Amino acid sequence: AIATMRQYETSGTLTRPLVTLHTTADPIIPYWHEWWYRWKVERSRSASSHLNIPIVRYGHCQFNAAEALISFFLVCFRLPASPCLMLSGRCPRTYSLCRARHRWPDRFKP
Fold first, then answer.
1. I need a labelling partner for 70 at 20 to 30 A (CA). Which of 46, 57, 82, 89 fits?
2. pLDDT in the model for residue 79
3. Contact status, residue 36 vs residue 10, Cβ threshold 8 Å
4. What is the pLDDT, as a whole number, of residue 8?
C-alpha cells in the first residue's frame, strides 16, 4: 500500500505557473500543507512558478467566484498577487486598487 501511495507524492518541480488557493481555517486539509508544498517547490528550484493565495476563511475550498477568477488571471499572466488580495477576500475591486500600489517583479511580466 505504501509503495502505491508514493506514486501520488508531489515533487514540487513545476514546468508551468501554478497558483494555489487554500483556506487558512480548512478543517479537512490544514493550511500547513501549503508550507510543506512550498518547501518542496523551493527545494526543486521552481519557486518563481508558484504562488499561494491564502484565503482567510473557515471551510474546505470555500472560495468565491471572484477569487477563482483572479487566480486564473494570475496564472494566465504570471502576475503575483498583492498582499491586499491575499488578505481581503474582496477580489476584483481590491485587486485593481492594490495593483497600482505594488511593483511587479520582471519575471512575472507577460
1. 46
2. 56
3. no
4. 86
Q: Give this prediction's pTM.
A: 0.64
Q: Is 4 exposed, middle or buried (0-12, 13-18, 19+ CB in 10 A)?
A: exposed
Q: Are the CB atoms for 15 and 44 separated by under 8 Å?
A: no
C-alpha cell read off for 62: 470555500
Q: Grid coordinates in use for 104? A: 511587479
User: Which of the two residues, 4 and 26, has the higher pLDDT score?
Assistant: 26
When pLDDT is cut at 50, 70 and 90, the band that residue 63 belongs to is very high
**E-state strands within the chain:** 18-25, 50-58
Q: How far apart are CA 48 and CA 53, in angstroms?
A: 14
For residue 107, how far is the Cα from the chain centroid?
17
Q: Are 85 and 72 in contact (CB under 8 A)?
A: no
